[in-house]
Structures
1.
Amino acid sequence: MKNKGFLLFKTLLLSTSSGNIYRTTTDKKKKGKIIGSWIGMSVLYLLLIFYCVITAIGYSYYGLGDSIPAMTAVMISGLSFIMTMLKAGSYLFGFREYEMLMSLPFSEKEIVSAKFMYMYMKTLPWNLSISLAMMVGYGIILSPAWYTYVLWTVLSFVLPVIPMLVSSFIGFGIARIGTTFKHWKAVQTVLTFGFVMLAFMSRFIIESIFRNNQVEDVLVSASEGTANIGKIYFPVAWFVSAVTGGSILGTILLIVTTAVLFELVFTVFAKSYKKINSAMKTTATEHKVKKASIRKRSAVQAIALKELRKFVGSTPYFVNVGFGYIFALIVGVLALIVGLDRIIATVVQGAPVTIEMVLPALPFVIYFLTGMVPMTTCSPSLEGKNYWIIKSSPVRDWDIYMGKLLASLYVAVPAQLIGTLFLCISAGATMLQTISFLALGLVLSIFSSSFGLACGIHFMKLDWENEIEVIKQGTAVVIYLFPNMILTFLVMFGGIFLSNVLGVVLTTLIAMLIYCIFIMIAFLRVKMLIKAV
Amino acid sequence: MSILKIDNYSKSYNGAKKAADNISLTVESGDIYGFIGHNGAGKSTTIRAIVGVLDFSEGEIYIDGHSVKNEPLECKRLTAYIPDNPDLYENLTGMQYLNFIADLFGVSSADRKARIDEYAGKLEITDALGDPISSYSHGMKQKVAIISALIHEPKLMVMDEPFVGLDPKAAYMLKEIMHDMCKRGSAVFFSTHVLDVAEKLCNKVAIIKEGKIISQGTMEELVGEKSLEEVFLDQIT
């Protein structure tokens, strides 16, 4: 008999492989979409690789080439940790085929470790693109010894595992604690959110520790900074010693620690795995229907409400998509409490940037958070197997998707407006500037939701195995991210420059006009797509 | 010889009312055992505990003498489970899925080919096995789940509403397959709402109400001169 864990891992990969779908389906439209997504992903990978190579060469050009290995290790570890925290809940617990797998002769450890490896494989191409591109940039400038390339390549596969294990273990702890409560979903969502916030803020916490210790008011040099991280997080130091000095000890320590931790984490997981999933897959049925909740609504509002319920009822959906909205509010509140000038100083690390300089960009600062991933990019796909329920209902397709758009706006608009308002107050913006920023914020939210909807419908994927596939890694989400980011950067930096000539309010109005044009294009696209669906 | 033995099994969710309350029953070699009750009576909760999906703290469940709690893998090797709504890997073809299950149970190439040919032929799904499961109807998915359950010749087949979605010929074939299994010394335990089918097919039956077994025994003992439907309605109301 083959190794069962490996068999499951292989099957998981095969069952979600677009190559397998392409090979077995006879649906030409589906084949076309797969080719489209391959092209889109290839472009993204090429851009990422190009960016990393240029970054590495740039660092070397400024004499910071030595810190590239540590920087790569920190980047891969940080990304793996945070991404796993956002995904672990859906990949490792409460997944759709849990019942099928548990009824087969797999041990809990085999199931959860295969699921972990599957999650690892899904992020490996991103990690390798970053790591190997940085290696190429490092190699071009510093021409290191041959063993650097060998060890760097080999350890690039190992490097993401420890942060992923640690993050999964935290996810496991959250799930374990959460399922002891009656409203376990809410508890799990709050705890996951808390840890994701903590992980994001850890950068500032670590920096403040170092500043208090020694360097004070002086920028920590890149090489010193990364060396310091190596003192806290040993795998970075092991990786650096292996690739720069050919350290056998560093290589062995990294590999052995990863293997031991892997074994340990999944042995602990296995003990409570069934208990956690049993709690997640079942619900006590003691709720009484509240008559007050039975109220007539319009079809669009009913769909929007259904979408909102799904949003708050699913931990991965809420944590991944809602993160930007909550963070926008936090940034706004922080600006009010500690002052926008201090936030700017922390972010730009001493660069000469003033409030006046960034004033025209305030709505965009919040939009970077609220417009990261709108609900509409994944909500069409999230219907999944239940797509027929809304499709068979006596509602126009247009109303269905407008309901989804409305749900997205219900969440995005308040976060955008409150965040922008707080920044305006903190920055001391005039009344007219504040009103124009709020109006632009509203337009940005509509753009984000409508463009997201166009991507969501165009790249709708209903046959997902796990909802995180369409929330975090869906083609619609990936395709949305890049043009949105480029457009935001262009309009924001263009606005900063133009405001010196035309003034802030007029520049904001021009930005609104630009976005209104894109909103119209997005709506036309949605209309066309709805006809084709 | 008992193939499935449930001893005082109870299960409650989050400390709420018990979904299964002190259930005991025995399924012996050659039995086709029907498990009937209203929606929400506790049938699926019991079935999911038998197949190792749901954990439980009270009572014990044995499959061919092995404890589900202490020897779960051994129990799963002897069991096949067909849920009411099978969640198969949608993007695999039917054949890829069946090969996955056969690999898992270590079924030889010759045996798996023979069994897939036999059961796919009986259930008339041979031609569709090369297509992705996502293109299948509910009934076709149910057929693939049935073939996957039979591919390793289980000692105990546990099914939750197995006839839902099956076309009449496939339903007939499934009944034939169940009889064949029992002739070979295996046993079948299934839940159903179709009382006519249960009456004709099963030699033993248990009726569950609000988590408790209110009657069980051989069909003759339980039904006597009445129909199973009459007995069920008498006891449930």
2.
Amino acid sequence: MSLLEFHCRLRYASGFEVDAAFATDAAVTALFGPSGSGKTSILSMIAGLRRPQSGFIRLGAHVLFDSGAGVNRSPESRRIGYVFQDHLLFPHLSVRRNLLYGWRRRPAQARPVSFERAAAVLELADLLDRLPHTLSGGQRQRVALGRALLCGPELLLLDEPLAALDVALKHRVLDYVEQIVNEWHIPTLYVTHNPGDVRRLAQRVIALREGRVNGAGLPGAVL
Amino acid sequence: MADTFLGLTPRDWQAVGLSLRVSAAGVLLSLPFGLGLGWLLARKNFAGKTLVETAVNVPLVLPPVVTGYLLLVVLGRRGWIGSWLFRWFGLEVAFTWRAAVLAVAVMGFPLLVRAIRLAFQGIDPRLFQAARSLGAGPVGAFFSVSLPLARSGVIAGIVLAFARGLGEFGATLIVYGNPESAPTLALEFYNTLQRPPGAGDDQRLWSLVGASLVLACAALGVSEYLERRGQRRESA
């Protein structure tokens, strides 16, 4: 049994259809493809924010979705840390309260990541009392990473976390992602259309085109 | 005129106080429904949505006395709900203060729902999804993310509905009646106008106009301030 098994079909009213199947055991798996290839749709289905018409999603021993068996776990019960492309920090909450939003909703014994350690690793200690609108793009990205990390996820979903950043910041954020993966060993699904990011981070890549998987394997073999 | 304060007699002050209390109670009564319906209309598509929207806005376009009559039909002792309430709880609604509260709640409801709906529509729905993905249930995400972000709009809606309630006349006249002992501000104005002119009545009328203006302007001023504060926060 693979760590993550995904086989779902989702058809939008516009006619666009995602019909993809893949499985992975890698620490970091890249979902790679051009804009509009269905990468974010797949993340939304895994997170439970969008319901597929049919198929199944399994994470380890847990069935997150199975249309045949009538299983569809709620987003809050899936234990998935989702870093959205545009961060979606809560604008009315300070950085500290954003970070603690998911952490406080976990039982004390199910908080594998300590708040202090996450704030230290992501260099957020000086930002804790600020509101999101006062932060730079890179700072927001780090808060979004920390917030997803602190909700105690069994899988991290990173949706193009470097899309809006300049080159220098991209390298720093990649360092943070690597550190998270190495320190907490949380399996990560990383969405990107940049082959360089895939080669640096991922051990396995799923290539997507027009809603379908058109290649999967080691980054060197697929790219 | 003896025993007046700011040109208003004790009876006028009693009417002002009753209007304030009835209006506040009406808004409090309709607020949970307004929040639920405003959120539903802003966020969900469902069969019959247009019908619900129309039904909510009906009190805006119906003559208030017609709305009052419909309330009387429903809430009177022989009405669909009124007879049930009387039979099971001994509760009379029509021609009591409860009827005045209900009239205010119904007449202000479209304004309340509209403001709340617009406030929720102004919030990125994905923030709610982000909250869900972080472990909050739908109710928790609503109260910790959606409602605080819609706060200014919700308060503006409350103030508008409250201001509308202060001036409520037509529906109140029908369903509450016009009790000599406890008129609302609008009813007292009407009663004074209808009576044969007496000494000091002109001054009383103008004092009641002044009181109505002060209350309405204060409510609208608060609503405007909150709306601007909300816009400033969104653009920050």
